[in-house]
Amino acid sequence: MNNEEILKDILRGAVDVVSREDLAKKLSSGKKLRVKFGVDPTSRDLHLGHSVVLRKLRQFQDLGHTAVLIIGDFTAQVGDPSGKDSTRPVLDHETVENNAKTYVEQAFKVLDRDRTEIRFNTEWLKPFLSNPAAGVSEFINTAKNVTVSRLLEREDFRSRMKAETPVSLLEMFYPVFQGYDSVAVKADIELGGRDQIFNLLMGRDLQKLNAQEPQVVLTMPLLVGTDGEKKMSKSYGNYVAFNDLPNDMFGKLMSISDALMYSYYELLTGEDLAAVKAGHPMEAKKKLAGLLTARFHGEEQGLAARAHFEQVFSRKELPGDMEVYRVEKAGKLSYLMVACGVAKGMNEARRLIEQGAVRLGGEKVAEDIVFEPKDCVLQVGRRQFRKLEK
């Protein structure tokens, strides 16, 4: 591709670019660029929302540049206020450390391991605050050049103050900490979700303060979750995780609306959107689900997940690979559901029964009955099956 085609490809799906001219200049410079993306390990799973930016990072890698993946093991304990309407609970170090281990391996499902530099921001932020000889003086020098009025430009801070919702001093430090990451790794470009624009621009400010060429900022849209309303998030329960089982991943993707499907095509694949829209929506959705399942589990698993879906849902047949659970004595159905792993607890089991999501032998169960041991199939929702044997 020529430089103009490369720029067009990099900007596909992007929301903000600061600035286009600087990005074009860096891409045509012939320099091996350092392209930064930071994630705070606040849970154990990466999901498709993260992959929007990770895929953009992979595009830079495929052009020969270095991806600098920052694992925010320090900033995760501070708490990113972006898009939050209240102060987030502070995570302890052990939780963050355990989550961080899973993030790295999951990220390599998208990124090229050989062109990825993994950095943990405790490396520079812990000494930043704890080393009297150098760290504290550096922090003071940085903090005195970041004004309160600049921090209050953040829309989420303004909204919370207007609503008289507390904003902690720790949260106000967060953009400074994230911005300093860019100084520490000498980033040429930083990627992030559109809700990160303030933090990314802070990185430019701090780089200028430290006599570095300011990074180009490129933001991507926030992927809408499977509910079609809120951004994809584990806390909303509308996410598709990298580590979801193939059948679960395929099934979740088949549940999204047609409109959302086209957004997923644009943000999560390199497919020609016009060609996709010209085809049949159901076939397009199966193709999308197959592409994404294959990306995280391999081509064979992607094809098997599609076959499973078509067998169970299109032809309404029972899956051939159901897990077997032996029932040894009579008991409440809710207890059986927990015991065989189709519900996490008794309350969830009862709620699923009340919602009409539970079937025994193909018949919907209307109440929490006493189940007498017998051979039959227990189905919960659209994707969970157990072959019960007495």
**Given the helix and strand composition, which structural class is it?**
alpha/beta
Helix content: 40-55%
Largest sheet: number of strands, sense, barrel closure: 6 strands, mixed
At CATH level 2, the architecture of the largest domain is: 3-Layer(aba) Sandwich
Sequence of strands across the biggest β-sheet = 1-6-5-2-3-4
Distance between the termini: 64 Å
How many DSSP E strands?
A: 13
The low-confidence runs, each spanning 5 or more residues with pLDDT under 50, are 83-87
Beta-strand percentage? 5-15%
The coarse silhouette is globular
CATH superfamily of the largest domain: HUPs
How many domains, as an integer? 3
- CATH C-level class of the largest domain: Alpha Beta
State the main characteristics.
single chain, 390 residues, alpha/beta, Rossmann fold, Structural Genomics Hypothetical 15.5 Kd Protein In mrcA-pckA Intergenic Region, Chain A, 3 domains, 6-stranded mixed sheet, 5-stranded mixed sheet, 18 helices, 13 strands
Write the layout of secondary structure elements.
Elements: H1 3-10, E1 16-18, H2 20-27, E2 34-39, H3 48-62, E3 66-71, H4 75-78, H5 93-107, E4 116-120, H6 122-130, H7 135-143, H8 148-151, H9 155-162, H10 169-185, E5 189-193, H11 197-209, E6 216-220, H12 246-254, H13 258-268, H14 273-278, H15 281-297, H16 299-314, E7 323-326, E8 331-332, H17 333-339, H18 346-354, E9 358-360, E10 363-364, E11 370-371, E12 376-380, E13 384-389
Parallel strand pairs: 2-3, 2-5, 3-4, 5-6, 7-13
Antiparallel strand pairs: 1-6, 8-11, 9-10, 9-12, 12-13
Helix pairs in contact: 6-7, 10-11, 12-15, 12-16, 13-15, 15-16, 17-18
